[in-house]
């Protein structure tokens, strides 16, 4: 069983380390550019849009149309100057996110995760980081939010191969944030009512720096 899993990992798009986690830190500039240059930037959906507030559908078709979606997501992420983007943030009801995110050591990570599931950490590994968090779908608003400073996600790559991704610090926050999106949660949903109200007020008082889809 374990050996079979390892063989499947090595058949994936990205190489893996000795523990079976993807190595997403190599050729980042080239890989991101290849995706982005094939894509078309789309406007970002914002809080209140129904697609952001429900669990997305699993990705089951990894064909040409899906590959174009991933390219569009990388293009949209770059336009919005984000570090992660979930499909429902451009209005698509599918469980996939892309990322181009540094960790706390400044190491860049670039990749694609489909059908992600966060690995539950044992209590002894749950060290919380209460740094500030923001979201492209809640433009211009930021608030402190405690999350574990280490995260693991299982899922599939853009071709459907099983993958495992792990991260620390800021990148761990990104993995958790983007996975939340695909299950219908925004980071402001994890805030107190007062903090959520304050974040929405920040959003209302400022103009986003990238195109957004206005809610009717």
UniProtKB/TrEMBL annotation:
Gene3D superfamilies: Peptide deformylase. InterPro entries: Peptide_deformylase, Peptide_deformylase_sf. It is an enzyme of class 3 (hydrolase). Fe cation binds at residues 135, 177, 181. Its EC number is 3.5.1.88. It catalyses: N-terminal N-formyl-L-methionyl-[peptide] + H2O = N-terminal L-methionyl-[peptide] + formate. The active site is at 178. Its cofactor is Fe(2+). Keywords: Hydrolase, Iron, Metal-binding, Protein biosynthesis. Binds 1 Fe(2+) ion. GO terms for molecular function: peptide deformylase activity. It comes from the Bacteria. Removes the formyl group from the N-terminal Met of newly synthesized proteins. Requires at least a dipeptide for an efficient rate of reaction. N-terminal L-methionine is a prerequisite for activity but the enzyme has broad specificity at other positions. Belongs to the polypeptide deformylase family. This is Peptide deformylase. It comes from Streptomyces althioticus subsp. attaecolombicae. The gene is def.
């Amino acid at each position: 069983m374990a050996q079979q899993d390892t063989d499947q990992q090595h058949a994936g798009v990205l190489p893996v380390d000795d523990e079976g986690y993807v190595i997403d830190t190599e050729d980042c500039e080239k890989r991101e550019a290849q995706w982005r240059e094939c894509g078309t930037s789309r406007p970002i959906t914002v809080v209140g849009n129904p697609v952001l507030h429900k669990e997305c559908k699993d990705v089951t078709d990894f064909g040409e149309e899906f590959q174009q979606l991933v390219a569009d997501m990388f293009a949209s992420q770059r336009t919005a100057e984000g570090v992660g983007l979930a499909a429902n943030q451009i209005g698509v009801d599918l469980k996939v996110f892309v990322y181009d995110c540094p960790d706390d050591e400044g190491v860049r990570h670039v990749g694609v995760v489909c059908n992600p599931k966060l690995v539950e950490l044992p209590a002894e590994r749950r060290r919380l980081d209460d740094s500030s968090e923001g979201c492209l779908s809640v433009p211009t608003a930021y608030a402190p939010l405690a999350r574990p400073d280490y995260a693991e996600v299982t899922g599939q790559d853009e071709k459907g191969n099983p993958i495992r991704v792990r991260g620390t610090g800021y990148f761990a926050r990104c993995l958790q944030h983007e996975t939340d999106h695909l299950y219908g949660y925004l980071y402001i949903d994890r805030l107190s009512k007062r903090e959520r109200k304050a974040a929405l007020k920040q959003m209302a008082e400022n103009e986003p720096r990238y195109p957004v889809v206005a809610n009717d």
